[in-house]
Amino acid sequence: xxxxxxxxxxxxxxxxxxxxxxxxxxxxxxxxxxxxxxxxxxxxxxxxxxxxxxxxxxxxxxxxxxxxxxxxxxxxxxxxxxxxxxxxxxxxxxxxxxxxxxxxxxxxxxxxxxxxxxxxxxxxxxxxxxxxxxxxxxxxxxxxxxxxxxxxxxxxxxxxxxxxxxxxxxxxxxxxxxxxxxxxxxxxxxxxxxxxxxxxxxxxxxxxxxxxxxxxxxxxxxxxxxxxxxxxxxxxxxxxxxxxxxxxxxxxxxxxxxxxxxxxxxxxxxxxxxxxxxxxxxxxxxxxxxxxxxxxxxxxxxxxxxxxxxxxxxxxxxxxxxxxxxxxxxxxxxxxxxxxxxxxxxxxxxxxxxxxxxxxxxxxxxxxxxxxxxxxxxxxxxxxxxxxxxxxxxxxxxxxxxxxxxxxxxxxxxxxxxxxxxxxxxxxxxxxxxxxxxxxxxxxxxxxxx
Amino acid sequence: xxxxxxxxxxxxxxxxxxxxxxxxxxxxxxxxxxxxxxxxxxxxxxxxxxxxxxxxxxxxxxxxxxxxxxxxxxxxxxxxxxxxxxxxxxxxxxxxxxxxxxxxxxxxxxxxxxxxxxxxxxxxxxxxxxxxxxxxxxxxxxxxxxxxxxxxxxxxxxxxxxxxxxxxxxxxxxxxxxxxxxxxxxxxxxxxxxxxxxxxxxxxxxxxxxxxxxxxxxxxxxxxxxxxxxxxxxxxxxxxxxxxxxxxxxxxxxxxxxxxxxxxxxxxxxxxxxxxxxxxxxxxxxxxxxxxxxxxxxxxxxxxxxxxxxxxxxxxxxxxxxxxxxxxxxxxxxxxxxxxxxxxxx
Lengths: 450, 346
Description:
The complex is a heterodimer of chains A (450) and B (346).
Chain A: H1 2-10, H2 26-34, H3 39-65, H4 74-81, H5 88-100, H6 108-122, H7 133-142, H8 144-153, H9 159-185, H10 189-197, H11 204-228, H12 241-267, H13 272-286, H14 290-304, H15 313-338, H16 342-350, H17 355-385, E1 395-396, H18 397-404, H19 415-444
Helix pairs in contact in A: 5-12, 5-18, 6-8, 7-9, 8-9, 9-11, 12-13, 12-15, 12-17, 12-18, 13-15, 14-15, 15-17, 16-17, 17-19
Chain B: H1 2-19, H2 30-37, E1 40-44, E2 53-54, E3 60-61, H3 63-76, E4 82-86, H4 92-97, E5 103-109, H5 112-117, E6 120-122, E7 127-129, E8 131-136, E9 150-155, H6 159-170, E10 175-180, H7 183-191, E11 197-201, H8 202-210, E12 218-220, E13 228-235, H9 239-258, H10 265-270, H11 275-280, H12 287-290, H13 297-305, H14 308-315
Parallel strand pairs in B: 1-4, 1-5, 9-10, 9-11
Antiparallel strand pairs in B: 2-3, 5-13, 6-13, 7-13, 8-11, 8-12
Helix pairs in contact in B: 3-9, 3-13
């Protein structure tokens, strides 16, 4: 007892640390350190603050405090505040058009459901225990578009289209079966299925056969479902607004990455024909402005097509955008490939990996990781470039915004809709950009040397 | 590699699925292919009040849209079998030439070069326009001849720009053009004092002025510096189709001359007041059949859109926001001092 007492008496007991003096921490100190460290800095801060105050104040005055929130026509807005305040009722009235274009209002749920399907399709990618993420991602790229095409377009399904739509349904069921099985049972869907059928101990060949039959049955069921599935046709001329922008840029983006990878590999290939063809494709589409390509595909292509073929205008625009984006993406990816040291290729060869295996396992993952900022930059550029389709008469978000000011009721209203469009573009582009930064951080874990 | 093929196949198939519609062979006559398709591809421009206006519900209306509706009604008796193709002026003629549009109804000026060198056929004039100038009242300017040295806002890439230069050169005056391809931007520039005058077709000036904070503070100068006969256009080489569009248009004018309206057309068809009306409405003769249309096609047209005067008053007349008076202008009937003079329907 006495010993303990002595010990406590002898041991150095630091006092709890006092908080740093107010002058060295807290917002005031931060401001002093960063904003007012010396006279020029303080002057710049004041100037910047003043400019910010004036600009933000003016925008707020116009957009919020001085704005008209309820009116029947622009004339009412003008009579109320003149041009000093924004006139939001016009934008509100047109907002459905700016989002869905001229898509029949009573059928808009189909567009929503189509995008909801996409969200559901990729939701398993965010489930922690799901391991087949690559397959799910690939299926979203390859099979979802068929399902979406029927949601959006509807109408009479041809045989070919029916086959693909059924594949889309099949893919969706597979994704969720896989996700649930992996998330909750912790094993692939195949095993869960075999267990349920009591065929776990069957021979490998039999197991494979059973799984194939199950997949085929599911496909037949999906096919039967398409026979019963009948939606009213909505021609692509009625597609528009944000919806159309997302369709065009979505297809462009999903097409451009794989196509760009193949073109980049093709250009670096040792086989002269492949390399020449890839180079020719890339250089042709990269050295012509997108607007020219769109014009070419839109107005010239029908002249070259055999008589009687009528390729939809939206399809032509999408193909043009895809080719253009692929050519640009190919060069971005080639840049990534060139950054991979020769040693990596040699190491892969020495492990006995062939061309495709080494590309898939060693080279491409590194190249893509390096190029994430450039790839996402390309995506964002493409997303905004799709506004050019308005020139060939597709009613994308921009042309819809422009149409507001030509409505007899809201004649001349054009700053407000463009303001809203700018915000919509900002939200989408900023989301893409933030996602890419998150992805970079995640992939750089343990590798980043600062 | 297999994966890449699958990707290509997938993208191809989606788009194929979305979009392969049964094609219209060019070898057919336009009327046949339109009938086979089941709807009329009518090209209009980017939304423009009065002529091809788009409202928030997504419906097209206007003086030119009524021409599309009238042709649709003439063919099927239903004015709504129209797919409106809203296209920028840059591609309007190629879109017609490559067979995508069956006709244009989009305030296109009839000029010699367009009619003779671009493979186009102008059918009739449904609106006589002319270029004018809009100036603020307090500028004190009362005549275009006082605009020497002015800066003038003008749409780029149109005949408007060329007419402007011609007019100033012909009168030995100087001016500085301020150009943009967006009307709203130009109007905003003009209202902000960025130019002394704004020039466009007078119908367009009237429409824009109606949306100014104070319309009475601006005045359209009396001078008309160009001739702008606007009318529907078809592809050259199918005269039968051009005839249909032309005579549907003339029919609407003839109906106004005879006093046949949307309201009384049924009654008039039942007991025509005279041989002219009887021929127009297909009660006598077979003008319609000769054109490949039902004999009573004008009855359908008039039931759908009314006569020319009714269409005019509905879309651009004095009681609309556009407010272009008709009486005494070129657009009045020839019997009322205008030059709208339909050839006889016989």
